[in-house]
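S.,

Sequence below, as promised.
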Amino acid sequence: MDENQSPIAGLMSFPEREATRDHAYQERKLKACGVDPALYGDSVETGLFGQDCFKAMTAGGVVLDGMVHMAQRFELLAPARLGERLGQRGWVASDEPDPRGRRIVQVFEFPRRDGALSARAEMFRLKPDPEKMGTSRGTRRGAEDPRANMLQIAEKTMQPRDVTAFSEDVGNLIHFDPDFAGRYGYRAPISQGIQTMIWMMGALAEKAIPTRFDVTARFARPIHWDDTVTLWRDAETGTPAPRLLRAINAEGKLAAELRVDHIDYE
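The prediction came back faster than expected:
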């Protein structure tokens, strides 16, 4: 969709709100993700707009408890600065049945004061039916090693305090409450998909801050709040940034994958 085009009326519109990022908030959240805040200087880290999306949902009366994030797309169109006041508007693009509950797509845009978009987000989410969780959609890959032809670039062990610090302002008991997470089949609370996505996106800013990109993350498996995960990138291709990043769990299975469809630097 053209960045200035008005959306077709969706199933539901969320209340418009202001999205402003200050230095202290960004520093706290990036550290919880295992990302050095210094990489971004006074530029807004785009992935944190995901938290604003959740806040807009809550303001619109959406109950987040139990929701599962399946995939996330971010388009950066014009970098914002810390302290810059952006608008936020959003709507539900689709709401369809899924073998495990309902599959929902939500779209959010972040315009600057002059009306031009700074960023756009698409959220692909599952509203699970606890009685149906565990039902396979038959889309997972076979026995191929997700690390094949990839290079390991980082490793971290999740900490409950970091998971709760990242999610504290948006809620969803699946990130905080072991008993609640257990109701949905998880052995412990799980981290937000966006928390892992921001960790992967940090690799895109290692050498310079991106000025424009289009990235999509797929969250294949949950990452519990005490799991150890490794970060892998595609083999060197001569490009200034990876085009594919994968977070791999301790069992060697794909937990999340970030595809870079386009990226520009200054």
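The domain at 12-133+146-265 is CATH 3.10.129.10 (Thiol Ester Dehydrase; Chain A).

Coffee later?
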